[in-house]
Amino acid sequence: MQNQVRYDFTETGVHPMYLHELITREELLELYDRVQLRYVQTNGIPALKESICRLYPGATPGHVLVTNGSAEANYLTVWNQVQPGDEVVVMYPTYLQVPGIARGFGATVRPFHLREEHGWAPDLDQLAEQVTPRTKLIYLCNPNNPTAQSSPRGRWRPSSGWRSEWVPGSWRTRSIAAPS
């Protein structure tokens, strides 16, 4: 059914293209003569990791792991951080990969919600209520999937005084989309 609609707002990829839409025949032949097929550095080439570090004061290439999309980053984060009996607080509605992986690793998923009546703003007081000493990960998706709502920094200040110290030893990960 999804391929029979005029506008598909559920797709997370790009519309398929033909190779000739991206590169000329001459450019393709030039690549054919000089590109060597080999394994690449899958955790990010040094130049890319150094560029990312410039966005975050104090970061070093050892702090940066480049992945092949957010799905891989999400999986690796949950796999590395969540153990059976841990709790994962998840923003809803959301892309359902992280809650599913967390449950698969034996965690309890505790929801907090974006509120349509507040312009899809996060309910940060509900977030504060969901965080416990067993919370190992707080999953936020901004801009949100599926609402496409982007929450500016100022919206992330709950009236209850939430702060990152709630989760000692917590890690912060960030997915960065490629510039379009």
Provide a brief overview of the structure.
This protein is of the alpha/beta class and 180 residues long.
Secondary structure: elements and pairs:
Blueprint (H helix, E strand, L loop, with lengths): L24 H10 L11 H8 L16 H12 L5 E6 L4 H8 L3 E8 L5 E2 L1 H7 L4 E5 L41
Parallel strand pairs: 1-2, 1-4
Antiparallel strand pairs: 2-3
Helix pairs in contact: 3-4
Describe the protein in words.
This protein has helices spanning 25-34, 46-53, 70-81, 97-104, 124-130; strands at residues 87-92, 108-115, 121-122, 135-139. The protein has 180 residues and is of the alpha/beta class. It folds into three domains: 2-34, no CATH class; 42-67, no CATH class; 69-166, Aspartate Aminotransferase, domain 2. Strands 3-2-1-4 form a four-stranded mixed beta sheet. Helix 3 packs parallel to helix 4 (97-104). The chain is extended and about 60 Å long. Residues 158-162, 165-171 and 175-180 have low confidence and may be disordered.
CATH homologous superfamily placement of the largest domain: Type I PLP-dependent aspartate aminotransferase-like (Major domain)
Strand content: 5-15%
Number of helices: 5
Principal-axes shape call: extended
Look at the helices and sheets and give the structural class. alpha/beta
Tag the structure with descriptive keywords:
180 residues; Aspartate Aminotransferase, domain 2; alpha/beta; 4 strands; 3 domains; single chain
